[in-house]
Amino acid sequence: MNYPNYIKKEKTFRTNYANRGMVLENDLNITNQYYQEKDIAIINKKATPIQVVKVSFNLKKQPTIKEAYFKKPSTTDYNGLYRGKYIDFEAKETKIKKYFPLHNINKQQLKHIKSIIKHQGICFIIVRFTSHNKTYLLKGSSLLEYINTTKKKTIPLSFFEEEGYLIKETYLPRIDYLKIVDQIYFGGQNEEKN
Amino acid sequence: MNYPNYIKKEKTFRTNYANRGMVLENDLNITNQYYQEKDIAIINKKATPIQVVKVSFNLKKQPTIKEAYFKKPSTTDYNGLYRGKYIDFEAKETKIKKYFPLHNINKQQLKHIKSIIKHQGICFIIVRFTSHNKTYLLKGSSLLEYINTTKKKTIPLSFFEEEGYLIKETYLPRIDYLKIVDQIYFGGQNEEKN
């Protein structure tokens, strides 16, 4: 058959497509699962929004989606509940050594972050610099201030070092970001948790 | 070709498959959009979880999902942020006149509701009896108490009338459930909003 020549390959995934190669995402999923099992917080990754176009039904099996497309996310990746507060964050990793490119976070997402802060939710981003193996939490308010002040398209690593919070990586929980949340949003340690 | 005979039909949807025939869901989406535009609350329907199995790539177009399946939801349908608090709820409609069948809410979802209440989130269900065209908000705690006390598999309409809160339907917002939330979770009207 004559396929158009732009069709190069067809790949098959048996695991969740959205997880493609993102180690940070996997670490966060394990961490959130730990928080849930230990009854510390209920924080989940939002499902990747998918536009379903064609579905095939048969009476014996479950319906099969035959044609669908990934949609661009308009909010952040994670949200949930911790110590009675609404928590919302986006997680990104970069291979670049000295800065984080801001095109990783789209305009709709920035609007969402602004909105969450306005409505008194806890909102931040988690950024991993994979070449240093260092993961930072940066408050949403610091991110917005940086963008409004500098008008730059990248955030230097030094900004994360100065304004962000380094998240210690341990065996379990893998990335204990709630320890940082306790410090900066609840004014100290969580006695119950520690 | 010889297709196995259990393949009866193949349907094509141009709209979101998850919305199939659910008027309440559509009303809630319009309501949540209104809340967001008026900067009252940020509450979204969670994307239907989908297990992607096969993706086809081509260089000119976006990737196309060729095989995927709907997954059973393990949490509730909606969550978000209102007046600094985490909000979480499930919405269901029934054609049955005198009761609401509890099999509409699965065990995982009940566990989730329990967990949200424990962590001081606002959690409830919205149930519409389509034959009466009446929509009720029932607190998650009332739902759990009913289940624990009666061990029944249905909730009679009278329970919603007595323990639930009738949501007034207007043009905009379509189903103003936050008015009820103001009353029962914030102890009165929201001066800013009204």
The poorly predicted ranges of chain A are 1-21
Rg of chain A, Cα atoms, Å: 19 Å
Proportion of residues in helical segments of chain A: 25-40%
Give the termini distance of chain A in whole angstroms. 64 Å
Query: How many DSSP E strands of chain A?
Result: 11
Oligomer: homodimer
Highest-level CATH class of chain A: Alpha Beta
Helix-strand string of chain A: EHEEEEEEHEEHEHEH
The profile of the biggest β sheet of chain A is: 6 strands, mixed
Spatial order of the strands in the main sheet of chain A?
2-5-6-8-9-11
Shape descriptor of chain A reads: globular
Mean pLDDT of chain A: 87
Structure description:
The structure is a homodimer. Chain A has helices at about 25-35, 105-120, 140-150, 155-165, 175-185; strands at about 10, 40-45, 50-60, 65-70, 80, 85-95, 100, 120-130, 135-140, 155, 165. Chain A is an alpha+beta fold and about 190 residues long. Chain A has one domain (about 25-45, about 75-185): Trna Endonuclease, Chain: A, domain 1. In chain A, strand 8 (about 120-130) and strand 9 form a beta hairpin. The longest helix of chain A is centred in the first third of the chain and has 15 residues, at about 25-35. The first copy, chain A, is globular, with a radius of gyration of 19 Å. The first copy, chain A, starts with 8 loop residues before the first strand and ends in a 9-residue tail after the last helix.
